[in-house]
Amino acid sequence: MAPSAVSPQSSPSDPTLPFISLAPLLSYDPSATPRAAASLLSALKTSGFLYLTDSPIPPSLLSRVYALSAEFFARAAAEKAALAWTTPRANRGYSGMGMEKTSLGLSKEEVSQERRGEEGEDQKESFEIGRDDEDGCPNRWPQNDGDPGFKATMLDFFERCKRLHATVMQAIALALGLESSFFADYVRRGDNTLRLLHYPAVPAGAFSGGRVRAGLHSDYGSITLLFQDGRGGLQVEKRGGGFVDVTPVAGTIVMNAGDLLARWSNGLVQSTRHRVVEPPPPLWGKGKEEREQENRDQDVWYPPRYSVAYFCNPDFDRVIEALPGTWEGREGGKLWEAINSGAYLEQRLSATY
Ligand code: NI
Known about the structure:
Blueprint: E1 19-21, H1 23-27, H2 33-46, E2 49-53, H3 59-73, H4 77-81, E3 93-95, H5 108-116, E4 125-129, H6 150-175, E5 193-199, E6 202-203, E7 214-217, E8 223-228, E9 234-237, E10 243-245, E11 253-257, H7 259-264, E12 274-276, H8 288-297, E13 301-302, E14 305-311, E15 319-320, E16 339-340, H9 341-352
Parallel strand pairs: 1-2
Antiparallel strand pairs: 2-11, 3-4, 4-5, 5-14, 6-13, 7-12, 8-11, 8-14, 9-10, 9-12, 15-16
The structure holds nickel (II) ion.
């Protein structure tokens, strides 16, 4: 059995990410739901990344989340610092530039080595929101007098994403041949994290020498739901090497599997590595080098990128071990030892902050 700190990581063999409609999964239509569930699981097995269409999140709510996010990050540094992220256990609040380094490293030492390496510090700031009723871990709410305000909007969005997580897990259960309610007791509390992300505008030279907006990493939990603006820059690692762009597609949610789901499924599902790099350049229609030189000469800046990530986790009091049907009679049996969901997340966050 592998030590508990080792995380399953893989990459897609097919550069084209699949599109999966949520409509049959939300409607519970016995004639369509099983097939859609099978497609979802198949996508998680082969690429680990996919686009969800027919989102149940109202576009007006998503627009409001983006607007409030931009408004928040535009505030004075001191105002944001007053809401600073404190501990991996709480995982709530504001992280300024350079505070977190997304990384493949599993220890503080490995991660600080990567901070000093080619990629450098992540060029991003973020704001984390957890469930609002966790004892000892209050959310850190900014003042906002709008209607609806920051808190009400984010909690509404949080709840809708929490329900979507339950829907996706129900589909995975169905596709694995488990009771459709198998994961119900794992997604009840919703120990998830809503993360607002801002990658500030940077001059064209900011990406020279392999520097990135967010370093290569895999996500930690069960699944991640990602809402991205039109800027681009997210890339997924391919199995044979190299990267494929996760091109922004309006109205879709990018979904990927995290390390805990890969462990839970005994390696059946891929937790694919990804990063945020130089977006498509501001000038088009020329050779890359010529374009880059021109951008530098003209003092071109890349516009900011905003995204909203919802990191789903099994409830923190639950123990995660290979699911029924994923290990019996297989060579190697259970590939990872059982682990507590909350302890696992805390351990991963401790390395990157
Ligand atoms: Ni990620």
